[in-house]
Amino acid sequence: MKTLLISDNAALQADLDRALQGLDDFTEVWRTPVPREAAWFLVRDADVDVVFVDLSWCGHQLLPAVINTIHPWLEHTKVVLLLNRLDDLGQPGLRRVRADLCVPRSTPPRTFQAVLAETLWGPTQQALAA
């Protein structure tokens, strides 16, 4: 599975890499804090399965601009917003963007894997992968 993390947090990249281990035979977590670089990465590699956007990096106000920058290249790519906490769901910026999944960064790894697998492959495939 190829993933892209839009964030400036290298520790989050390592945490995400660990959380994705075992979800697929092979996982890659690429990271950039520059939305235009993220768009370039998506143009160059159409096989990206998931784009993770770190809300603590961009904030609620800039989130729509970040999503709009990468949106033209998201045809089959899922978008997962990594929230600071569940309260973030009520923020206006989140209501104006397309996201396939919103999940707090503090979600336990097994739970994170389960909800991500269901988002990527649906309930039937997720059960087969478990």
Describe the structure.
This protein has 130 residues and is an alpha/beta fold. Helices cover 48% and strands 19% of the residues. The protein has helices spanning 10-20, 35-44, 55-70, 92-95, 109-129; strands at residues 2-6, 28-32, 50-54, 78-83, 101-104. Strand 4 (78-83), helix 4 and strand 5 (101-104) form a beta-alpha-beta unit. The mean pLDDT is 87.
Reading side by side through the largest sheet, how are the strands ordered?
A: 2-1-3-4-5
The dominant shape is globular
Topology, number of strands: 5
Biggest sheet record: 5 strands, parallel
Which spans have pLDDT < 50 for at least 5 consecutive residues? none
Provide keyphrases for this structure:
single chain, 130 residues, alpha/beta, 5-stranded parallel sheet, 5 helices, 48% helix, globular
SSE layout and pairing:
Layout: E1 2-6, H1 10-20, E2 28-32, H2 35-44, E3 50-54, H3 55-70, E4 78-83, H4 92-95, E5 101-104, H5 109-129
Parallel strand pairs: 1-2, 1-3, 3-4, 4-5
Helix pairs in contact: 2-3
Compact summary:
The protein is α/β, with parallel strands linked by helices. 48% of the residues lie in helices and 19% in strands.
